Amino acid sequence: MLVAVVSDTHGNRAGMERLARFLREAQISTLLHLGDDYGDLAFFSQQGFEAIGVPGVYCPQYQDPRIPNRLVLELSGVKLLLTHTDSRHRYDRPEDPDPRAAAWEVDLVLYGHSHVPALEDRESGWWLNPGHLKNPVDRGSPATFALLDLDPKGVWVQIRRLADGGIILERELPLSREGQPHPASSTADPDPSEP
């Protein structure tokens, strides 16, 4: 299953229209939005996409208890955590889980807020920040988005520039399965005497 991931659109209509054109041409119909601005979900829904997301810390919806600030969903057998920040934030509601703790229960954490694209293999698993669509360049980073090809055995990730669709990062992420520790959490060397 192919899905798009975007964060920090900040109402940039031209950037969102460019992304929508790219996704339609690529026949991608599902978009995950990681906040700032939560209202931008409506734009993608009106364009015919299945748009799922969480609010950013500066969105009024972040304080609305009817809207989750952290969301776990499973798509094509892959458990994802959607969160705007990669740690607790001063604007969190008391019931909001800490993303660093929730990360241990999912295959991939999707977060935004920094406006800088990143893919990290942390102790708790894989963390992906698709970057931002706020401006052509913001905080030293070009506007970017991510594409995920989800499969229970692994996820193929691409981070692409919005301006030309060029790939700036591409990687296959092996996923840990039940009963198997994530590779980053295993520090012991294997015993060479074992078969």
Q: What secondary-structure arrangement, pairings included, does this model have?
A:
Elements: E1 2-6, H1 13-25, E2 30-33, H2 40-46, E3 50-53, E4 70-75, E5 78-83, H3 99-102, E6 108-110, E7 118-122, E8 125-129, E9 137-138, E10 141-142, E11 144-151, E12 154-161, E13 167-174
Parallel strand pairs: 1-2, 2-3, 5-6, 6-8
Antiparallel strand pairs: 1-11, 4-5, 7-8, 9-10, 11-12, 12-13
Explain the overall architecture.
With 195 residues, the chain is mostly beta strands. It has a single domain, classed as Purple Acid Phosphatase, chain A, domain 2, CATH 3.60.21. 12% of the residues lie in helices and 34% in strands. It is built from three helices and 13 strands, in the order E-H-E-H-E-E-E-H-E-E-E-E-E-E-E-E. The strands form three sheets. A six-stranded mixed sheet has the order 3-2-1-11-12-13, with helices on one face. It has a five-stranded mixed sheet with strand order 4-5-6-8-7, with no helix packed on it. The chain has a two-stranded antiparallel sheet with strand order 9-10. The N and C termini lie far apart (37 Å). 38% of the residues are buried. The C terminus is likely disordered.
Give a concise summary.
With 195 residues, the chain is mainly beta. The chain has a single domain, classed as Metallo-dependent phosphatases (Purple Acid Phosphatase, chain A, domain 2, 4-Layer Sandwich).
Can you tag this structure with a few keywords?
six-stranded mixed beta sheet; five-stranded mixed beta sheet; 3 helices; 13 strands; mainly beta; Purple Acid Phosphatase, chain A, domain 2; 195 residues; globular; single chain
